[in-house]
Design goal:
- The protein has a domain of about 260 residues: Peroxisomal Thiolase, Chain A, domain 1 (3-Layer(aba) Sandwich).
- Helix content is about 30%, strand content about 20%.
- The strands form 2 sheets. Strands 1, 2, 3, 4, 5, 8, 9, 10, 11 and 12 form a 10-stranded mixed beta sheet that branches. A two-stranded antiparallel ribbon has the order 6-7.
- The longest helix has 20 residues.
- It is globular.
């Protein structure tokens, strides 16, 4: 088996719900990210791309019917380039990258593009289809933007609590209070703003029309300001709109290939380990703990060898719970800001953190990094990258 390498990463800026990217269809956003990563590799003949593996969590509206294939066609790639779309909810594009890396390692392809997209703004409302024509009662349209919908009555009630309540329970379990969550969230905004100002994200993003920068970052955020927000899920709860990731739109793409791929670029990082883990659905926020431990074991290293961590910030409380469990230096986690500030368009976030992690390792000259993401309904994924740049 050969090794799989990351050669390039590109993403759109992430827009707020109903914000700058609201008028852009998800398949168009996917095509923009796809073209953005391909433009970095002048030496690559697009016809030699073995596959495109794309992530998307919704797939109920304009992102339906294999949005990965739609992106390939809209991006103007040769029609012979195949594509598939995978759905592991928030982990969809990290799953896509893991699938792509395995495809390279087994020799099934020399180059694979992985990525993902989500337009949470444009996610449709859906109606359950009646079993008989002309039902007499009312029918309720259900939002597909986030969370459980059309729940199977056979599911235990404790599994189907809201994402917010699940993380309130996590805070209760580990004694993680409001103050720590607000401090973590403010740090996310401050670091993301500084990273943009320093130019860190400039070559990782491709514009969407006139939009060139993540829309949700608040440079003046502080724990004191966040403390004034009301709880969202419990009257006396700790989770607020300020210490949880928002609803967002965006896309991200990765170019993955073997060591001898005819790309015209030097590889940035090697896929050194992968981990998948599952827990009870309401504990999903804590699942990255073991996913990352499994990825490190596969890579043959421990946490003492890790120089950088990109942990998707679904909620501040679950991020803190994971960092506490790993017993690592918190300063190596999301040093360029995280999803609370940058945004969390579900299907795109995994590819975003992979691209960010690789660049952080380049910048710091660190050797190993971990990208991890929690996933609704009780799952998590993690990848270990080894810097080879």
């Amino acid at each position: 088996m050969t090794s799989a390498y990351l050669y390039a990463a590109a993403r759109t800026p992430f827009g707020r719900f109903g914000g700058a990217l609201a008028e852009w269809r998800p398949d168009d956003l996917a095509a923009i990210a796809l073209k953005g990563v391909l433009e970095k590799a002048d030496g690559l003949d697009p016809a030699t791309i073995g596959d495109v593996v794309w992530g998307c969590a919704n797939q109920a509206g304009e992102d339906n019917r294999n949005v990965g294939r739609m992106a390939v066609l809209l991006a103007g790639l040769p029609v012979e380039v195949p594509a598939t779309t995978v759905n592991r909810l928030c982990g969809s594009s990290l799953d896509a990258a893991m699938i792509a890396s395995r495809t390279i390692e087994t020799g099934d392809a020399d180059v694979v593009i992985a990525g993902g997209v989500e337009s949470m703004t444009r996610a449709p409302w859906v109606l359950p289809k009646p079993s008989k024509a002309f039902p007499a009662g009312n029918v309720t349209a259900v939002s597909t933007t986030l969370g459980w919908r059309l729940i199977n009555e056979n599911m235990p009630k404790e599994w189907t609590v809201s994402l917010g309540e699940a993380n309130e329970l996590l805070g209760d379990r580990f004694g993680i209070g409001r103050d720590r969550q607000d401090e973590f969230a403010a740090r996310s905004h401050q670091l993301a703003a500084k990273a943009w100002d320093d130019g860190f994200y400039r070559d990782l993003t491709v514009p969407v029309g006139d939009h060139t920068r993540d829309e949700g970052i608040r440079p003046d955020s502080s724990a004191e300001k966040l403390a004034k927000l009301k709880p969202s899920f419990r009257k006396e709860g700790t989770i607020t709109p300020g210490n949880a990731s928002p609803l967002n739109d965006g896309a991200a793409a990765l170019m993955i290939g073997n060591e001898g791929a005819n790309i015209g670029l030097a590889p940035l990082a090697r896929f050194a380990g992968r981990g998948t883990h599952a827990v009870t659905p309401q504990d999903f926020g804590y699942a990255p703990v073991e996913a990352a431990n499994k990825a490190l074991k596969q890579a043959g290293i421990g946490w003492d060898s890790v120089d950088a961590v990109e942990l998707n910030e679904a909620f501040a409380v679950q991020s803190l719970a994971c960092v506490d469990a790993w017993r690592i230096d918190p300063t190596i986690v999301n040093a360029k800001g995280g999803a609370i500030a940058i945004g969390h368009p579900l299907g795109a976030s995994g590819a975003r953190i992979i691209g960010t992690l690789a660049k952080r390792l380049q910048e710091s000259k660190g050797r190993y990094g971990v990208a991890a993401i929690c996933i609704g309904v009780g799952q998590a994924l993690a990848v270990v990258l080894e810097n080879v740049a």
